[in-house]
Each structure stands twice: as C-alpha cells, then as structure tokens.
Amino acid sequence: MIDDPTPEFSFVLKARDGAARRGELVTPHGRVQTPAFMPVGTQATVKAVMPDEVARTGAEIVLGNTYHLMLRPGAERIAALGGLHAFMNWPRPILTDSGGFQVMSLSQLRKIDESAVTFRSHLDGQTHVLSPERAIEIQTLLGADIVMQLDECVRLPAERAAIERAMQLSLRWAERSRRAFTGSGQGRALFGIVQGGDDPALRVESARTLAGMDFQGYAVGGLAVGEPQAVMLAMIETVMPHLPENRPHYLMGVGTPEDLVEAVVRGIDMFDCVMPTRNGRHGLAYTRFGPVNLKNARHAADPRPLDAASDYPATRTYARAYLHHLVKANETLGAMLLSAINLAYYQSLMCGMRSAIEQGRFADYRAEVKEGWARGDIAPVDGAPAGDGA
C-alpha cells in the first residue's frame, strides 16, 4: 500500500540533534522517512530479493540505474509498459542514478567530451550516447520520483587537474540537466551532484555553484571510490555547510554500517549501496554484533540464529548451521535469505538513528551501536572463540 501519495515532491526536517537530521521526503509515490537507506535495484530488481520482501525489510525507496536500463530493456519499452514502478512491481518511490558512476566504472568502454558520454555497450558492443539531456529524458520515461543530473565521477586517487576538469564539466552538465528537467518534472525532484574528489576547495566550489542553481536536493558524489574513510568523512564535513539546509542531502554509493552512522552524524539524509545484497550473496551477514562470515567452518554445527532478538523473522528463525550449509552448497536460497537479512539490518539501523535523533540522544545511540560491533557475537557453541570476521 502506498503511503499517502501526493503529486508533488517536498522535504521537511522534523528534528535535529547536532548536525544529524530527521526528516521526511514526500514524493508522487509515497513518503520516505530520513535518514533513509535505498536498496540498489540497478536493473529493475534488488538482486535475489522479491519486491514484497524488500518492503518487508523496511525499505521505502529503491534505486534504479539509467545506464543499465537504457541498454536493456530500454527506457522507451519500460515507458510503454507503464513505467518503472509498474514494470518492477514496486509502487513506492524510486530514485534513478543518471549513469555518472558508469562513466568511471566503464572507463574502458566510453569516450567523454563536452557534449556527452559515448558508451560501447558491455552487452553487445553497440554505441549509445548519453548526454545530460538524454539522461533526463530516460529518467522521465522511467517515471522516477527522484532524478539525478548526469555527472563525471573520478576514481581516487587522481591528479588535481583531472578532478577539477571533471568537476567543472559536471557543473556545466548540472545546468544543462536543470534546463532539460524544467517542465518535465510532473511533481518529481531533480538532484544536483557535488564533485571535487578529495580536494576541499573544489568541493566547496562545486557545492556553492550547485546551491545557486536551486535543485530540489543535493547529492555528494565521487566518494567511496578508493579514498580512505577519513577522507570521505572530511569531504562530507567540508561540503555540508555550503548546501541548503532545507533540501535533502544524499551520499551516493555508501556504504558500510559504520559509514552510514558517521555520515548521518555529519548531516547526510539518504544513502544507497550494493554492499548489503552483494555481500549477502557471498555469505556475509550484517548484524548488531558486527559482520558474520557464514562461510567459516565454525558455523557448521551452530544451531543459533543470527540474532534471536531481531525484528526481522529470517534473522531470528534460520540456524547459522543451515545458512552456512546454503552458502557452502551455493544454494540460491542462501543468497536470498542473507540479502534480505542484510537489508533488514540496514533498515533497522536507519530506524534506530531516526528515533535517536528525535529523542536527542544520537551520540548515545552511536556509542551503543559501535559498542555492539566491538563486543562481537554472543558466546558461540563448543567453546569456539567469540566474534567473527568478515
């Protein structure tokens, strides 16, 4: 059931605790409580998790990808079939990435100039041109609630000249994206993307220039792409004072549970990352005791669930021994269960942060969560050492 759908996008801040913010996004397909984590549904699916189960984990919004859906099955086809919400049976809000990350990740398959990025498809070798205007057109055809500008993302470390060139190009593309979006929004929101790598001065210039363009939201891009966590957090601290306080702040492609907590304390409202589902498919579970690597032999005879106190049924129902067996046998059910369990943990973490901000006790919550991760697992069976590594 869609939660009170509305034709217009808006964002309201409900509480603050230091720089941490508790808010609400209102979109054409429902409301999203922030801080929010968006499961990644790159190709119109959150890998190994049914849409209804994604919702049961607590997710209110998912992410789709412009580049991949442009290639297959095509934006025009999805539009003819009723748009992305109907196509993937997800009636709740959707944010679509513009394809800027693929400018970096598929650097061997693309050429970039002032006008656009030209990709050679990794599927069949055909050529596709993605300009700022075409990226907006595709996202409009998909029917996304939140649309991202096309940008250029640079892997770190990089030379300052390369970072500055990409940042300036991204600013010019931001203005073109904004012009292309005008009149096609239909209640949707367009977010600008701050670039500038690990250079504070470039980050500030990007943030200030984008703020002057008056986007409905602002993303911090180009992080978690090779730099240490300390650098990522420093860049967030550098950028936040220069972004409008009354607009949502989105940290793209991040990250670990610790990354989420540390970014929220610095003023971030929205996240996406493949980590919970990708690592779930490879046997790693995220819990309030820290990560649990179910490939490890120590779980083979362990009858305990991952967390008997979890609100999510699968986390408290399935024995570690069974999950270990599924992972070792490469059974699809193992990937399905662990992906959903991880999404549920991420959503529980976000819910806890929202509640702590409302109560003015975010610092205490942050300390409690980290203490749980540091303490590790409860006593394991057969006297095996406590805790578990990733």
What does this entry look like structurally?
The protein is an alpha/beta fold and 390 residues long. It has two domains: 10-272, TIM Barrel; 280-374, no CATH class. The chain is built from 15 helices and 16 strands. Helix 10 (257-264) packs parallel to helix 14 (332-359) and helix 14 packs antiparallel against helix 15. The longest helix is centred in the C-terminal third of the chain and has 28 residues, at 332-359.
Can you tell me the residue ranges where pLDDT is under 50 for at least 5 consecutive residues? 1-5, 379-387
> What is the CA-atom radius of gyration, in angstroms?
21 Å
Put simply, the count of helices is 15
The CATH top-level class label of the largest domain: Alpha Beta
Main pleated sheet:
8 strands, parallel
What helical percentage do the residues reach? 40-55%
The total strand number stands at 16
Strand order of the largest sheet: 4-14-13-12-11-10-6-5
The CATH architecture of the largest domain would be Alpha-Beta Barrel
Secondary structural class: alpha/beta
Distance N to C terminus: 37 Å
Mean pLDDT: 92
The CATH fourth-level homologous superfamily of the largest domain:
Queuine tRNA-ribosyltransferase-like
As for the number of domains, it is 2
The percent range for strand residues is 15-25%
Q: What general form does the structure show?
A: globular
CATH fold-level name of the largest domain = TIM Barrel
What secondary-structure arrangement, pairings included, does this model have?
Elements: E1 10-17, E2 20-27, E3 30-34, E4 36-39, H1 51-56, E5 62-65, H2 66-71, H3 75-80, H4 84-87, E6 94-97, H5 100-105, E7 110-112, E8 117-120, E9 127-130, H6 132-142, E10 146-148, H7 160-181, E11 189-194, H8 200-213, E12 217-220, H9 229-239, E13 249-251, H10 257-264, E14 270-273, H11 275-281, E15 284-287, E16 290-293, H12 313-317, H13 320-328, H14 332-359, H15 362-375
Parallel strand pairs: 4-14, 5-6, 6-10, 10-11, 11-12, 12-13, 13-14
Antiparallel strand pairs: 1-2, 2-3, 7-8, 8-9, 15-16
